[in-house]
Amino acid sequence: MATLHLLSHSPFSDSRFASCLRLLGPQDGLLLSGDAVYALQPNTVQLQALQLMPESIALYALDEDLQARHLQVPDRAQAVDYPAFVELCTTYAKVNSWL
Protein backbone atom coordinates (compact mmCIF):
# COMPACT_ATOMS: atom_id res chain seq x y z
CA MET A 1 0.00 0.00 0.00
CA ALA A 2 1.70 3.20 -1.22
CA THR A 3 2.03 6.09 1.21
CA LEU A 4 2.62 9.78 0.63
CA HIS A 5 4.99 11.08 3.30
CA LEU A 6 4.68 14.78 4.16
CA LEU A 7 7.75 16.39 5.65
CA SER A 8 7.77 20.07 6.62
CA HIS A 9 10.58 20.44 9.19
CA SER A 10 14.14 21.42 8.39
CA PRO A 11 16.37 18.42 7.63
CA PHE A 12 19.04 20.11 9.78
CA SER A 13 17.04 20.41 13.01
CA ASP A 14 16.37 16.81 14.07
CA SER A 15 16.23 13.21 12.86
CA ARG A 16 12.81 13.28 11.12
CA PHE A 17 14.34 13.58 7.66
CA ALA A 18 16.63 10.57 8.12
CA SER A 19 13.89 8.54 9.81
CA CYS A 20 11.48 9.27 6.97
CA LEU A 21 13.98 8.20 4.31
CA ARG A 22 14.59 4.91 6.12
CA LEU A 23 10.87 4.09 6.13
CA LEU A 24 10.04 4.90 2.50
CA GLY A 25 8.62 1.96 0.59
CA PRO A 26 9.38 1.28 -3.07
CA GLN A 27 6.12 2.84 -4.33
CA ASP A 28 5.87 5.68 -1.79
CA GLY A 29 6.06 9.39 -2.42
CA LEU A 30 7.76 12.13 -0.41
CA LEU A 31 6.48 15.70 -0.45
CA LEU A 32 8.74 18.37 1.02
CA SER A 33 7.13 21.57 2.23
CA GLY A 34 8.03 24.42 4.56
CA ASP A 35 11.61 24.24 5.80
CA ALA A 36 11.95 20.65 4.54
CA VAL A 37 12.64 22.05 1.06
CA TYR A 38 16.07 23.06 2.39
CA ALA A 39 16.97 19.40 1.78
CA LEU A 40 17.09 20.35 -1.91
CA GLN A 41 19.97 22.80 -1.46
CA PRO A 42 22.82 22.00 -3.84
CA ASN A 43 25.88 20.20 -2.49
CA THR A 44 24.28 18.91 0.71
CA VAL A 45 24.24 15.44 2.19
CA GLN A 46 20.44 15.67 2.28
CA LEU A 47 20.14 16.28 -1.47
CA GLN A 48 22.57 13.47 -2.13
CA ALA A 49 20.42 11.12 -0.02
CA LEU A 50 17.32 12.15 -1.97
CA GLN A 51 19.09 11.61 -5.29
CA LEU A 52 20.10 8.12 -4.20
CA MET A 53 16.51 7.06 -3.51
CA PRO A 54 15.14 4.49 -5.95
CA GLU A 55 13.45 6.07 -8.97
CA SER A 56 10.21 4.32 -8.00
CA ILE A 57 9.92 6.69 -5.02
CA ALA A 58 8.40 9.96 -6.21
CA LEU A 59 9.84 13.18 -4.81
CA TYR A 60 7.75 16.35 -4.72
CA ALA A 61 8.36 19.84 -3.34
CA LEU A 62 5.81 22.54 -2.73
CA ASP A 63 6.54 25.26 -5.29
CA GLU A 64 5.47 28.12 -3.02
CA ASP A 65 8.03 27.07 -0.40
CA LEU A 66 10.78 26.67 -3.00
CA GLN A 67 10.12 30.17 -4.26
CA ALA A 68 9.99 31.65 -0.74
CA ARG A 69 13.44 30.20 -0.04
CA HIS A 70 14.88 30.98 -3.50
CA LEU A 71 15.57 27.32 -4.24
CA GLN A 72 15.55 25.62 -7.61
CA VAL A 73 13.89 22.25 -7.98
CA PRO A 74 16.49 19.60 -8.90
CA ASP A 75 15.87 17.12 -11.72
CA ARG A 76 15.04 14.38 -9.21
CA ALA A 77 12.07 16.32 -7.76
CA GLN A 78 8.82 17.69 -9.12
CA ALA A 79 7.49 21.06 -7.97
CA VAL A 80 3.78 21.03 -7.15
CA ASP A 81 1.27 23.74 -6.29
CA TYR A 82 -1.47 23.44 -3.66
CA PRO A 83 -4.10 21.89 -5.97
CA ALA A 84 -1.55 19.25 -7.03
CA PHE A 85 -0.70 18.68 -3.34
CA VAL A 86 -4.36 17.91 -2.65
CA GLU A 87 -4.50 15.63 -5.69
CA LEU A 88 -1.45 13.71 -4.47
CA CYS A 89 -3.14 13.15 -1.11
CA THR A 90 -6.04 11.46 -2.89
CA THR A 91 -3.79 9.45 -5.22
CA TYR A 92 -1.88 7.58 -2.51
CA ALA A 93 -3.59 4.97 -0.34
CA LYS A 94 -2.28 6.57 2.86
CA VAL A 95 -0.81 9.91 3.88
CA ASN A 96 1.71 10.14 6.72
CA SER A 97 2.63 13.55 8.09
CA TRP A 98 5.94 13.69 9.96
CA LEU A 99 4.97 16.08 12.75
CATH topology: Hypothetical Protein Ychn, Chain: A
List the domain count as a whole number.
1
Kindly report the oligomeric state of this protein: single chain
- Trace the largest sheet across and list its strands: 4-3-2-1-5
Distance between the termini: 21 Å
Work out the helix count.
4
CATH architecture: 3-Layer(aba) Sandwich
Range of helix content: 25-40%
**Could you give me the name of the CATH homologous superfamily?**
DsrEFH-like
- pLDDT averaged over residues: 97
Q: Please state the structural category.
A: alpha/beta
Number of strands: 5
Protein name: Sulfurtransferase complex subunit TusB
GO biological process, one term: tRNA wobble position uridine thiolation
Organism: Aquipseudomonas guryensis
GO molecular function: transferase activity
Give structural notes.
It is a single chain. The protein has 99 residues and is of the alpha/beta class. It has a single domain, classed as Hypothetical Protein Ychn, Chain: A (3-Layer(aba) Sandwich), CATH 3.40.1260. It is built from four helices and five strands; from the N terminus they run βαβαβαβαβ. Strand 2 (29-32), helix 2 (45-51) and strand 3 (58-62) form a beta-alpha-beta unit.
